[in-house]
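Limitations

Structures in this collection are predictions, not experimental determinations, and the ligand pose is part of the prediction. Treat each record accordingly. The example that follows, with zinc ion as the small molecule, is included so readers can see exactly what is and is not provided: the inputs are given verbatim, and the output is the predicted complex.
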Amino acid sequence: MPIRFTDTYSRQLEDFAPLAPPLVRLYTCGPTVYNYAHIGNFRAYIFEDLLQRHLEARGFDVLRVMNLTDVDDKTIRNSLASGQRLNDFTAIYKAAFFADLDALRIKRAQHFPAATDYVPQMIDMIRDLEAKGIAYQADDKSVYFRLSKYPDYGKLAHLNLDELRPSGRIRNDDYEKESIGDFALWKAWDKADGDVRWESPWGPGRPGWHIECSAMATALLGPELDIHCGGVDNIFPHHEAEIAQSECCTGKKFVRTWLHCAHLMVEGEKMAKSAGNFFTLRDLLDKGWTGREVRYVLLTVNYRLPLNFTFEGLAGARAALQRLDEWTARLADHAGEKSEVRNQKSEIPRVEAFFAALDDDLNISGAMGALFDLVRESNATLDRGDLTPAQAAALLAGWQRVDAVLAIERDAVTVPAEVHALVEQRQAARAAKDWPGSDRLRDAIAAAGWIVKDTKDGPKLTPR
Ligand code: AMP
Ligand code: ZN
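Predicted complex:
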């Protein structure tokens, strides 16, 4: 079965067909680095991570670009308020963003272009648009995109332009559908910009947000992208404007497949900085949740469905991960020597079902259903004593394939020497039938962060 996605442009489920397989050119709108990213932003990045990892599991070579918006209305406003220069200010949030990507096990893109490094390319595009009569400089010295020159504007968001009355020019990066109009490509410098300015053929100023992504995407991936992603709030006006600018410059169809994830919600409202209802990853780590647990919550709801964020959801993730940890530990024990995995090739129907579900528009809930069916069935087979070590090894190999996409396996932890020593003392106490001593040692082991279980093969340790 081919891979299928629901393309935002056509609103149809379509077979995925990149231009030059196995290469997939993937562009994903990245963070505006004016604050710590909230977990709503990370829902988008984790959906994109799942997309990338699944395509790779299916043999594609994904070339991914994620931009960093380090100059726009918000970064300028907040850097001025903090009294820092723009670059010093955004550097703090760039570093925090990369630390968060690691904590959430999000694969690094090949390129993380910063907008401030691509201003010459943006100027080139605007000059090209001006030469074609599509861009013009207005009285306020800013340069605008002439909407009347691009009749396809609004098709991604499925707007009917005839019903909307254009409201003149728009200088803001973000605006409502109701106030559609010629949008800014280059914003002439004014006092509110402080020392943030670049020279240009139109005088000092700075790029608009939309031209930033068009320039970085085409500079690094060429004129035709296979997939472009973002959250649904990016559809209008940002991605609509990207299409208009890019296609008018290159004359080519900019994007073959548009994918947008639904929002992360809190009590029925979009999680957003402006609404003040957000959690950063740090907030959750400070409350004792792990990056792995947050990843699980953000990963396991289908990307086109809104995801309601709750602490019960996080607790559910903790329980589900524990179930998987126990299962893999049990399989590893049972496989013994064979865990080196000789049976790489054996097909496990539930594992194939996991990947088939993801082929179907990244149906992660179907995929997780197949995985937990496998856990339940193989645990039952183990309970009956019917699983051979070779079968356990094959299941572990299947799990490794699955986890290359999910990235939720427990970090390998080594048991500290002092915990080993406590376990040995406890074994000695048990041999001497010193039960109170054995219990005290069990508590000491627990205090050190480990749970000891007595099995027929001797004591087994798991992290608490
Ligand atoms: P921003 O930093 O606001 O430009 O957003 C960065 C990315 O996060 C974009 O792709 C947005 O669509 C996405 N995003 C923002 N808020 C949410 C949310 N509550 N749920 C899911 N994605 C979001
Ligand atoms: Zn963008």
